[in-house]
Amino acid sequence: MIPPFTLRQNGDAALDICFDATPGESLSRVVISLKNTLERAVQRGDWPELRELIPAYQCLTVCYDPLAAQEPVNVSLQQRIREFVAETIVSTSFPDAADQSQGSQIVVIPVCYDAPYAPDMSAVCAHTGLSQSRVIELHCQPDYLVHMLGFTPGFLYLGGLARELQCPRKAKPELRVAAGSVGIGGAQTGIYPQSTPGGWQIIGRTPLSLFAPYREYPFIARPLDRIRFVSITSQEFEAMKQSAANTSNPVKETT
Amino acid sequence: MLRILKAGLQTSIQDGGRSGWMQYGIAKGGAADPVAMQLANSLLGNPPHHPCLEITLTGPDIEFGCDLSIAICGAQFDLTLNGQSIDNDQGIAVKKGDHLAFGPLQSGARAYLALSAETVLPAAFGSLSTHIQTEFGGYCGRALRAGDEIRLRNCRREPPRQLSNDYQLRYSARPQIRVIDGAEAEMFADTARELFYRTTYSVSAQSNRMGIRLAGNGLDTAGLPQMTSSGLCPGSVQIPPDGSPIISFVEGQTIGGYPRLAHVISADQHLLGQLKPHDRIDFFRVDLDTAIRILRDKTAELSRLIE
Questions:
Q1: Closest to B183 (Cβ–Cβ): which among A9, A51, A67?
Q2: pTM of structure
Q3: Measured between beta carbons, which residues in chain A are less than 8 angstroms from residue B137?
Q4: Which helix (H) or strand (E) holds A77?
Q5: What would the pLDDT profile of A78-93 be if each residue is shown by its tens digit?
Q6: CA gap B65, B68 in Å, rounded
Q7: Which intervals hold domain Carboxyltransferase (chain B) (predicted)?
Q8: CB-CB neighbors (< 8 A) of B247 in chain A
Q9: A82 contacts chain B (CB < 8 A)
């Protein structure tokens, strides 16, 4: 099914292509496919005015240079984007577009759910009425879909948290959450790539680096990859933390 | 070589920033006031986005380890070279062993120290800019500290040049910032929008390169629908639940979920880099065509100056 879309100005240097459909896997496939198609067109030199493409749950943000966009084109940028989106949607059979052949991966992320790394585990158990082992079991069960990256470098927006695990964000965010902290905030779960303030309930920590600026691919996953959390002991956590190799080679399986 | 004797509040390496990485969560970054940076570089014949030192509110003391030329544009500090007073907006020859000191700040918030040399540092994502919030790029991913030494290469002397008086930058502590409607402007009640444009906001001390937080009349966000997070661009004026506007800035988050009432026009975003805590700002609404026209005019004027 092809979702209808609208264009919306996002400041004077960006347009949002917004789809009128519920966020979810099939919509994310549409947004990411469109982003990839447009990115290839930019690489071919077709859109010299475009600067950035930012996919999100329902929108693809297209940042452009407003002065370059005013150049000899006799159709406005808005109109050209509208046509491009319509043509792309018609010519590709979303939602199973080219991206699947690109091979999305399952990225396995080891997490230690033990006390020193899980300051809010007891709060989550109390809120959900579940035992710690059940929380871990439920958190490790799904293969979470990466909808997008953003917010801070390498932060993953994941879909698929079990309803039983949902619990509210903290009323007062912590000033400093350790890098690698795995948390639950409302209906979302995720990992803090950097040590930042944060309001999620922290139930574990991964020894992997989610963002390594000088690594060949500096991030741990791409949109439409899947994330699988695997429980490890604190001994394993410390061993992995100390082994330099783990930061550059997260375990990956190709689907 | 360039040795930091005293660091100042936040002295960092900045250039034109990085492009194409927002989809991974990496903001463009770069100079908070790219106009001042480009003018400083132009006085030395550097490319416009050549890496500079961005100096914030309290300046550093620097010793030079080679002969070269420097130029300082942007915020006005009381500057001395070996104890002798020097001015902004001109190329100045320095010798090995010379000592540059930034005294009290007179206007603006950020000065740019351009060097007629290359800084020897590793690029990250195609830029030498320090990403202060995430700690990568620049010099060890952080603001400079006393004792740091930055290696320089191809140090050269440039004939002294000076910006004409007409173009020397002076900053108001109460600028007017032009905005267009934000992506969610129409979601806000008319009373909230009117209040926003009627209020003189003051810049909070919690502002940084990621966002400029404003204090003043809080806006009512009670009736606003919950939003799904989407791409957030620099200049966006978000209204979080407490009603106090936050302007997304050069190191801003790339995905956001608060409604955007307004958007600082691209042409005025460089002025945000000269705001300091307790400065006051008024917002003035223009339409999209006007925003583009102002950008074209300002860009043309800057190109004339730096060519």
A1: A9
A2: 0.93
A3: 213
A4: helix A77-91
A5: 889 999 998 887 666 5
A6: 9
A7: 23-299
A8: none
A9: no
